[in-house]
Amino acid sequence: MNIYFRLFTIVILLTCSCLTAMAAPLGKIDAPPLSERWFGIYVNSERVGFYRQRIEKSEDGFKIEGDGSVRMKVMNFSKEASMRETYLVAKNLALRSFDVEQTVNGSSSHLKGKVIGSAIHITSEANGKKSDKILKFKGEVYPGPALNLYPLMRTTTPGSSFKIQEFDPEEIKIKDIQITVLGEDKTSEGLPAIKLRNNLYPFVNNDIWVDEQGNTLEESVREGLVTTKAEQPNVLGPFISGWALAKKDLIFDFSLVRIQPPLKDQKKLTGLAIEVSNWNDALPILQEGGQQVEKRGNGRVLFKTGSLAQISPESVAQKPTDAQQKPADKIESDAPFIKAQAIALTAGINNRREQAAALASWTAGWLKNSIDDGGSAVESFTSKSGNCQTHARLYTALARAAGIPTRFVSGLVHLEGKGFLYHSWAESYIDDHWVSVDPTYNQLPADPTHLKLLEGHLPEDLAPIIAVIGRIKMTVMETTY
Fold first, then answer.
1. Helix or strand or coil: residue 295?
2. What percent of the chain stands above pLDDT 90?
């Protein structure tokens, strides 16, 4: 696989340093590894993006899917890119068809194409305009994610060199690429690997380390200036969930879940039933807070919220835990000015629900919305700005200071005219049941488009979002107004 993203193209002259060639043949694989793998992208050791790849069998070969985002600035060259790509390839990895959506420096495009004979027939849509193009070639052409696999599916020895044609969806052209097998080596973390090198970027070495099964372990451009490393989902989880919940532009397209049919008149919506497919069964099924969830099999889950949530009055809600009533990391309900503010806002209000509403309303007005996390409740109280996580932390701290058991929750919320995005809010224990409270949008209860996936405010609590982000699909089954 190739985490190729076209991270940058810069002209820097380097002195090549090759490993000593060895005569012994290296390992050969008959097919690419069928798996899902995650990668972190770094510039000078700072994480600037991520990439996820899935490879599975198709009818006549393999399907290679990839998606991710990157933001970097190197030597006055800056680039922001997000991509979703699907390639159908033959058993020898040669390209057969593709579907690529990409946003590069704010410019979005959608390409679809198919190999017919010795030509790629391409339909491109950008800025509301469609165009067709035909690229002719001789022999076979390969997608970028096949570059690192190509040598291992052939008999190779150190020093072997392969010249192949690669389709570049960003420039919409076919490029000649040379791949050299340097020999056995180790990654920067000491893992045994086979080292490859290609000329994907002019005048700059692109070094790759793969294992004997064909899994990419690491890539390095310009001797470590830009690196891509295979990482476990639990390592990337907090990073990706933080971006998604902040709704940053970098991850917006990646995390947005479009729905069919589109929701209308969201402000008038009183109930919602929505089916989520491609669900990961490792995630918990969370009830309460105005939602009812049931598994339907085959990776499908049905959420019912608002008036469609069939919650009987006799059902007993989960009682608040001690932790949901006490101070916590970044939720400093015992800070003097947090306590003073909570007391001032609820003074003269005896109804617990009205107290929570007053605290949510004040939080929504006090904090200026931003894409950056404003930090803890104490920090955001002073800075007066923050994203949805910040709002949820400050409200939770105020509510607990006022004696209202409250928990921090995260999931999905609908953005009218767009789709569902990842979001954080809170639930307060009022009148013997949990009520959803959104202090970002000043809603109590939160509107029926709030679908709770996780409970807890710590990075490890939010990390499981990685199990569904960029994967799930949603279908509206029923609405009430």
1. strand
2. 62
